[in-house]
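INTERNAL TRANSFER SHEET
From: sequence group
To: structure group
Subject: Dihydrolipoyl dehydrogenase

Please process the attached sequence and return the structure record in the designated field. Keep the field labels unchanged so the import script can parse them.
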Amino acid sequence: MSQAFDVVVIGGGPGGYIAAIRAAQLGFQVACIDEWKNGKGGPAPGGTCTNVGCIPSKALLQSSEHFEHANKHFAEHGITASDVKIDVAKMLARKDTVVKQNNDGILYLFKKNKVTFFHGRGSFVKADGGAYEIKVAGAKEESITGKHVIVATGSNARALPGVPFDEETVLSNDGALRVGAVPKKLALIGSGVIGLEMGSVWRRLGAEVTILEGLPTFLGAVDEQIAKEAKKAFDKQGLKIELGVKVGEVKAGKDGVSVAYTNAKGEAQQLDVDKLIVSIGRVPNTIGLNTEAVGLKLDERGAVVVDEDCKTSLPNVWAIGDVVRGPMLAHKAEEEGVAVAERIAGQHGHVNFNTIPWVIYTSPEIAWVGRTEQQLKADGVAYKAGTFPFLANGRARALGDTTGMVKFLADAKTDEILGVHIVGPMASELISEAVVAMEFKASAEDIARICHAHPSLSEATKEAALAVDKRTLNF
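Return from structure group:
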């Protein structure tokens, strides 16, 4: 006899586990199915984000930043450190510990909220009398039913055509997090979030890093002024970034990888490296979901087709996160998970795509919310802009990190904040103030007139807001 649930969530990543917990809080009987395994074969919920994405990459970024500070910046603080070395195995072990803490935390939250967890791969079997039968293929095969189903199966790394990931020399984000020794030469194809973050990790640890980007502009989704400031910093650090390249044949062997490409001038080039990280985007993960068994509609990319409320083509079947339209961000998936659980309960869940923040956790960090200056110009929107450099911020000087700036964009007539863009220290934390302000439709003057603690990095946010009206106080 199949176990029956009100809500079955397929996928235990950021969107899935949050959806399951919120549905349980609302009084539903909930099951969550997830197939991720740890090194011992046990359950490891949290999806790509927790296991091979957001969390482990931040752990490595932190470790590598400590190493670089010890080697290059301690002396200016009067700290003498000689013969500083990196134990890569220990660094990776710490990363794995951080991941496990998050895995275990999710399992605890399931238990706390009375969510029934199934370890295995979930797939549709059939629609059955107003519910859906779901097969769980794990250590043992089980069958459960759900009145509502939330598909939260995430995404997979996109491989280069004809160049599969072997996770030894040709690496996805997964393999990039498990490199056992610092490579002498490392190449990355794609200068997006994963490429820049992983490039930063191994560059700090001593690798010679080259990033090959097909687009003619750096970080095309980022405000142009901010992207230029970031590239100047990366160039100074020693990251070699080539734009406008066309990648040709890639040959992988036991001793490394050879990448043939044409540079922006049309010249044929060859790059021989120890490791190659491919970071050219991600694709929705619907393989093995058996959507055809129930007639669940997919688009040409393999993503589940949903409306603005995350409803699919089937009654009482929902989909969220990377497996649907919109930005592939963990926090976007979480918000959709909460919204869907509340909609199932008859409430009015809401996700505002216009105020979803974006962050790249390099050094300097890059964060933004809302529209860029280029988008406003293209849309014919009259706007005012204000910037403030961290060079003029007292806390940034004390930290020894004055790279970058805060930039405000506001409506020329109403002064409503249309976008905030930051490159510099702790941008990932500073952007939250802008998100809150935009959710409440604040004006730049609202931020300019709020008292910010001194000395703090957040004063740069206040000063940039003041700059919209050309009245900065410290620059």
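Handover comment: The mean pLDDT is 97. The radius of gyration is 24 Å.
Transfer complete.
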